Amino acid sequence: MKLPRNGEIKRVYVRDHPRSALAAVLENGWLIINTHLSFVPFFNYLQLLQVKRWARQLPIKDKTKIIIMGDLNLRFGALARGINWNSLATKRTFPSWSPHVQIDYLLSQKVASEDVVLFEIAPSGISDHLPISVDVDQ
Question: With the C-alpha atoms ordered 6, 122, 81, 110, is the resulting torsion angle positive or negative?
């Protein structure tokens, strides 16, 4: 993996590690799930399918009021969205010093990208990803 080290871009061996997803139900009824999926191709897609399946099993009234977000490590938006999911932002997010691919997403079944306001946030310099922030007014 390419990472910034001492002002230079260096290749570093990175072992994969266990992954998780954290869910929160907001007062307005939205279920927000944040996750960081594997960077191993195909395995990350299977993990996303598991997160989507888990989200549908959680006890919320409106199953369309779910947003899955985070570093999905999927380079192809169509794979990240899948069937019946929308990407709320299209933005190259990785690597932060020269972004050429989107691997970070906000996904929803109910909201479309034209229904949100995308905020531009300056990179912090701490992460190798660029931030994505949207306002969902629903």
Answer: positive
